[in-house]
Design a protein that fits this description.
4-stranded antiparallel beta sheet; 12 helices; 36% helix
């Protein structure tokens, strides 16, 4: 091969490397100019859906956005615990304004309160999805903290929770295995990451006496009613988490990609039925197309369970 031929090959190799790098940035969901606060805003207000619990709701069940993340949105009553979602704005007396960045990170991924303030060093309740948030990439965890710091402080004292027995946080396999930046360009692995930090399988896997059965990952069956969740509209009929495995009849195996994405973002089932909260449709609707495609790609790989 002549000199010009080798130059052409080298040019193609460089172009391929550049395209690969660009693809990684796109799949990482992070433009070059995206700041940590912008990234945190995207995560908190979409896949993490923090406001689904932490934002006050109107009598009709709509989030009161002028009081975003100021606590009291949903209340939970379980055998080991009862209480309302806390104020996570930077208010220094009723929110997390007096917490350090490290203390906020610890609360998110370890589920432990700071050594000062209310209920020092106590574990956060089981409804806080700590075993899933543990999977957050360091840059994403930092971005979430940066966004929470940027919020308007809102004074809203939420009643202290009641603990009736020790807190139990069950480990989630994918979070324990962890994720790296390197796999974020792979749609299936990126989808697994988003499904993990979005704690989808917390609700969509069956449980027995409060213990999740991740051996039946995605098989559904968990029931939500007014005895468990308070803060929903009076007419809320409750909900039962669906089977989201790849099973052709019991799960999503025969659904189209568009039907799955419509269910996630609009709360409409394949047959046109209106799906019910607490699934955070309005938050998931803010996800990018690339992230939704990655989630669908991952769900296609979840082993079929009837």
């Amino acid at each position: 091969m002549g000199c010009n031929g080798w130059e052409r090959v080298r040019t193609l190799e460089i172009a391929a490397a550049l395209l690969s790098g660009a693809a990684a940035l796109i799949f990482a969901g992070s433009a070059v100019a995206e700041t940590p606060v912008e990234r945190g805003h995207y995560l908190v207000e979409s896949i993490l859906a923090c406001g689904n619990c932490h934002t006050p709701k109107s009598p009709g069940g709509m989030p009161v956005m002028e009081r975003n993340l100021s606590g009291g949105g949903l209340m939970f009553t379980l055998p080991p615990f009862s209480g309302a979602a806390s104020n996570i704005t930077p208010d220094k007396t009723t929110g997390i304004g007096a917490w350090s960045d490290d203390e906020i990170r610890r609360a998110i991924v370890e589920g432990v309160r700071p050594a000062h303030g209310r209920l020092p060093n106590t574990q956060l309740a089981v409804v806080m999805a700590t075993p899933f948030f543990k999977a957050m990439l360091p840059r994403d965890l930092d971005a979430v903290v940066a966004y929470l710091r940027s919020l308007k402080p809102i004074q809203n004292e939420v009643a202290a929770p009641t603990y009736r027995m020790p807190v139990r946080h069950d480990k989630y396999p994918d979070a324990e295995a962890g994720f790296t930046e390197a796999v974020m360009a792979e749609p299936v692995r990126r989808g697994a990451y988003l499904v993990t930090i979005g704690h989808c399988m917390e609700c969509h896997s069956p449980s027995d006496k409060g213990v999740p059965d991740f051996a039946r990952l995605g098989a559904g069956g968990r029931v939500f009613n007014a005895q468990l969740v308070q803060g929903m509209p009076k007419e809320w009929p409750g909900a039962k988490a669906a089977n989201i495995t790849s099973h052709p009849t019991a799960g999503l195996g025969r659904w189209s990609d568009a039907e799955i994405k419509r269910a996630i973002t609009q709360g409409i089932s394949r047959d046109g039925r209106r799906l019910q909260p607490p699934m955070a449709f309005a938050w998931y609707a803010r996800m990018t197309d690339a992230d939704l495609d990655a989630i669908v790609a991952y769900l296609r790989t979840v082993p079929p369970i009837e």
